[in-house]
């Protein structure tokens, strides 16, 4: 049983003022594996005070000094990649396909940001004005449970590069992963107060931070509903906000797509991170005449997706993070059938042969209309909807007929056609034929998937303010 009883403020692991404890679970076994003592509003105050005190010196560090810090952070996080893997598997239940990407990436985001910084010019001239990009002040990062240390490291890398000090409030459900990554970050030897991490409840610590008058920037990853509350709270003091919110991403299979390529990619995108991914491609748009063939292939391929113990490297779908999340997904499985959709594969209950753990049967609904709730709401589990379309224009219309706009996939064997369709999709990222990850490309949403961008130069500038001196 792990006991996590410290938070990280001013360069040290300290006892929280908060007295509340929360249990931590292994979602694959439902066993309690630890407890965490949570920070409270007073701890949030201490963390902001430390970050504010550190800001004047940190904001005047040179680019070379900050590149050096980013490299130290990369080394410190990479050195414990094995512990990060173990923590994510035990506390979160992510399958190897996800962890193999997430764990190395937690360290690599610091190197990527160091590379961005190398070629970034903080000063430029516009007519008579000398424009300097200045760090925006004390920043707060609020992160979800579904890829704990990726978000912590991604947001921290941009703050360090910009010269902003930071208070991070991770999800209270990921305290073991947070503990491991905090130990890594501590090893990098940043100056006191540059980084502070206070795990606590959103409505206690999160809201104290987003309302704090000494905080000038909030970067948030989480649900659209929480994002809305944070924007309202941040509005009182006109904070800069970056919002990385939910999604209901379309995967458009065009009629000339190579199905041998498209089908595995569509399912990997849909079942990504056991379906607990903001970018999951949960709406599969298929040409009407090919619906039968595509559904047959999807069904066969989905049935081959192994569900179960995430320690098994063959497993592609792990458990839901919590009982609450499991129940939420079950309610959507019922709702889909009530709405008239047909189960192609999967359905309610645990997968066959599994008698414990918050496992869901990988599910694909057929006969879905885009106005059904299962096609409009983020389910955050391995539940996909097949929606048929008559022609390319209708495919694009359905893809864009959503409140969200985070990511989309297009599959076609004609690159020009795929690009033409991609250009018409209202989403922050469109991926053609499962193209590989591009770490410096901007990431973020259109519409209610949020605003602002992360990674590369766009992510760096989200922590900077231009100041023009004219003479
Ligand atoms: P959530 O919105 O419930 O919580 C996210 C974080 O916000 C947690 O740390 C929580 O404690 C905190 N929080 C809750 N209420 C708060 C408040 N009033 N003030 C301040 N902070 C508050 O999300 P979750 O369930 O942890 O994560 C899943 C959601 O995150 C999904 O909707 C998913 O789409 C989204 N997400 C988005 C991205 C992206 O990059 N766009 C990435 C991953 C997850």
Strand content: 15-25%
Principal-axes geometry comes out as globular
Assembly level: single chain
Biggest β-sheet strands, sense, barrel:
7 strands, mixed
Fraction in helix: 40-55%
Strand order of the largest sheet: 15-16-17-14-13-18-19
Radius of gyration using CA atoms only: 22 Å
Structure, described:
The protein is of the alpha/beta class and 471 residues long. It is 40% helix and 21% strand. The chain contains 15 helices and 21 strands. The strands form five sheets. A seven-stranded mixed sheet has the order 15-16-17-14-13-18-19, sandwiched between helices. A hairpin with a 2-residue loop joins strand 6 and strand 7. The longest helix is centred in the first third of the chain and has 23 residues. The chain is globular. The chain starts with a strand and ends with a strand. The model has no long low-confidence stretch (mean pLDDT 98). Nicotinamide-adenine-dinucleotide (NAD) binds next to helix 7 and helix 8.
Name a few traits of the molecule.
471 residues; alpha/beta; seven-stranded mixed beta sheet; six-stranded mixed beta sheet; 15 helices; 40% helix; binds nicotinamide-adenine-dinucleotide
What's this model, at a glance?
This protein has 471 residues and is α/β, with parallel strands linked by helices.
What is the element layout, followed by pairings?
Layout: E1 2-4, E2 7-9, E3 12-14, E4 21-26, E5 31-37, H1 41-59, H2 63-79, H3 81-92, H4 96-118, E6 123-126, E7 129-135, E8 139-142, H5 148-162, E9 166-169, H6 175-187, E10 195-197, H7 202-211, E11 217-221, H8 224-235, E12 240-244, E13 250-253, H9 259-270, E14 283-287, H10 291-303, H11 323-338, E15 342-347, E16 361-366, H12 373-376, E17 383-389, H13 392-400, E18 407-411, H14 415-422, E19 429-432, E20 450-451, H15 456-461, E21 464-470
Parallel strand pairs: 1-5, 8-9, 8-11, 9-10, 11-12, 13-14, 13-18, 14-17, 16-17, 18-19
Antiparallel strand pairs: 2-3, 4-5, 6-7, 7-21, 12-20, 15-16
The structure holds nicotinamide-adenine-dinucleotide.
Nicotinamide-adenine-dinucleotide binds at residues 142-146, 169, 171, 202-203, 206-207, 210, 221-223, 226, 229-230, 244-247, 278, 378, 380, 406, 445, 450.
